[in-house]
Design goal:
Layout (H helix, E strand, L loop, with lengths): L1 H33 L4 H29 L4 H8 L5 H6 L2 H20 L14 H13 L8 H14 L17 H10 L3 H7 L3 H5 L1 H16 L4 H19 L1 H4 L16 H4 L4 H28 L5 H4 L7 H23 L1 H5 L5 H6 L7 H11 L2 H18 L12 H7 L9 H13 L4 H20 L7 H99 L3 H7 L1
InterPro entries: WSN
Protein name: Domain of unknown function WSN domain-containing protein
Organism: Caenorhabditis nigoni
Length: about 575
């Protein structure tokens, strides 16, 4: 019976959706006729879509974590910015500290020694010789450069510099900013519009454990944060180690007086770079992050056992991975379009400057650089075409609407399919442009090329190849409809068992009251009978008492008359004869 009611409700709901869509056209047309673009409306609509994308992805993650389908390390890796968790856990901090301390010893000795000591006679008893012996023992280590911990640290730093750029996203499509977006879910559920969409607070409760993970991952990320100085130090130390190993043989036949000079046996000036103690201090925080990862793994394992009515109802959202991917990418696409609109004035300014590139192409550039720069020089018409379609999109897609029907927002994605982007590889173009600038002597031309380079970097960061989102734009309508149905269905799945439970409570209470009432009635009935019996007894006893009193009175009167007769000598008969 319940299934029939649910089907009827969904059918009615879809009918309402159809009617609403018919009425949407007038809203869009009115917006176009007004010709006034309201940026606040665009921001409101896109921010709402970001919320829905986060909620959808959150449902998928919570559901799959409980089922044990998502590998824990993969999830943490994506939320941390695609860091390789296995590599991070395997880093031996003590091993790295040993390298830095050894280098610090070399640096200290190179800066302080004033005596000429021959390393080949390292058996000398002087302090300098002892230091030299330690340095040589360090350099004699055949695995110096291949120590996995240091290599892993270097790779980790590279990943920290380019977050989410080294590995494809598999699970967190709705969280492009990793754990920061995950934490945003708690604020999303405070939004009145979203509350009306999801219909029940139970959904927030069901993914609360997932939101908690975001806070823990945030702390780990902060512990893994290295300053620019520390990051640079890792790369410089790596180069130092290569130089030291390369010069190891020469080091054994030279004296340490030369170390501080430019013609040293190895480039000591490269060693005198930073305070190694600063790096060791950063590594101690790194240890805390490793400890935090272990606790995080334990928390995720516990989530698999955290099953209740609210979390079990999430299973009814079928194809949650596909919907998370569709909506996650589609929203990223329209957010990129918004960023491009906001940068229009800045981007359009470089069009007149593009001709400078063509004039500078004569030089010793590689064929790849030549081709990249030629494509950049021809970008002007493509940029203008892109902004023409972006303007059409922004005027036709946003309107005042607080509707809780997600299909009302599908038009944003439908119109986005008509936007023409720019399919250039701006990352490669930026490298080629940098090579071009390096060979230009004219300072004025260099400055103009640097202005173009700044814009190219921004274009690369935003991503103007909107055609890559076209498939998800097309499929977004189906995802919005699936979400509409799920939120209604989820509310029903939560509400019905609660009602049934309350009914059972009511029935139990009712039967209890009836039982208590019956018991009270029986007690009162028997008390009444007891009362009547006692009353009857009292009356009976009272009657017997009165009879006794009457008999005593008569007896006393009889006795009195007898006494009187004896005194007067008269009898009743004699007295009667007198009359």
């Amino acid at each position: 019976m319940m299934n029939i009611i649910t089907v009827i409700l969904i059918a009615s709901f879809c009918e309402i959706i159809t009617v609403t869509n018919v009425n949407l056209d007038s809203n869009f047309n009115n917006n176009e006729r007004e010709g006034n673009f309201n940026e606040n409306l665009m921001n409101q609509s896109l921010d709402r879509l970001k919320m829905i994308a986060r909620v959808t992805n959150g449902i998928y993650l919570q559901k799959r974590i409980m089922e044990g389908i998502i590998p824990t390390d993969n999830l943490i890796s994506e939320l941390l910015g695609s860091l390789e968790i296995d590599m991070l856990e395997e880093i031996n901090v003590e091993e790295i500290e040993e390298i830095f301390e050894a280098l610090e010893t070399i640096q200290t000795f190179a800066n302080s020694t004033s005596e000429s000591v021959n390393v080949t006679s390292a058996e000398n008893t002087s302090d300098s010789s002892e230091l030299i012996r330690k340095v040589l023992e360090f350099l004699e280590n055949p695995k110096l450069l291949n120590k996995s911990s240091f290599l892993h640290l270097r790779l980790l730093i590279i990943q920290l510099i380019n977050p989410r750029a080294t590995k494809p996203i598999v699970h967190t499509f709705g969280f492009p900013n990793g754990y920061q977006d995950l934490i945003m879910l708690s604020k999303d559920f405070e939004d009145s519009w979203l509350q009306a969409i999801v219909r029940t607070k139970s959904l927030e409760f069901s993914i609360k454990p997932l939101i908690g993970l975001g806070v823990v991952i945030k702390n780990i990320s902060e512990q893994l944060s290295f300053t620019d100085e520390q990051k640079n130090m890792v790369f410089e130390v790596y180069q130092d180690l290569k130089n030291l190993v390369a010069k190891k043989m020469e080091l054994t036949i030279c004296n340490f007086t030369e170390i501080s000079s430019e013609s040293a046996c190895f480039p000591a000036q490269n060693l005198v770079i930073q305070d190694y103690g600063l790096m060791i201090k950063g590594l101690k925080r790194f240890k805390e992050a490793q400890s935090g990862l272990k606790s995080l793994n334990t928390s995720i394992e516990r989530m698999k056992l955290n099953k209740n009515l609210e979390t079990e109802a999430l299973k009814h959202f079928s194809d949650s991975l596909r919907h998370s991917e569709i909506l996650g990418y589609a929203v990223q696409g329209v957010i990129s379009m918004r960023l491009a609109i906001q940068k229009e004035a800045e981007f359009q300014k470089i069009i007149p400057k593009l001709s400078i590139i063509t004039a500078q192409l004569i030089g010793n550039l590689s064929r790849e650089d030549q081709e990249n720069l030629e494509e950049l020089a021809k970008m002007g018409p493509h940029l203008e075409a892109m902004y023409s379609t972006l303007n059409t999109w922004k005027f036709s897609s946003f309107f005042k609407d607080n509707s809780t029907n997600l299909l009302n927002y599908s038009r944003i994605f439908e119109n986005a399919q008509l936007v023409t982007g720019i399919g250039l590889n701006f990352s490669n173009i930026a490298i080629s442009l940098d090579n071009l600038i390096a060979g230009v002597g004219d300072e004025e031309v260099r400055e103009k090329l640097k202005d173009i380079e700044t814009v190219v970097d921004e274009m690369n960061e935003i991503g103007l190849n909107f055609s890559r989102y076209s498939k998800t734009f097309k499929e977004a309508n189906g995802t919005m409809q699936a979400l509409n149905v799920f939120f209604v269905d989820y509310d029903t799945k939560i509400y019905d068992p609660i009602i049934a439970k309350e009914r059972n409570k009511d029935y139990t209470a009712m039967y209890t009251l009836i039982g208590v009432g019956a018991a009270i009635f029986v007690i009162v009935f028997f008390l009444g009978l007891l009362y009547l019996w006692r009353k009857d007894k009292e009356i009976e006893n009272f009657g017997e008492s009165e009879n006794g009193k009457t008999k005593k009175t008569i007896s006393r009167k009889s006795g009195s008359n007898s006494e009187e007769t004896l005194l007067t000598g008269k009898t009743f008969t004699s007295s009667s004869s007198t009359y």
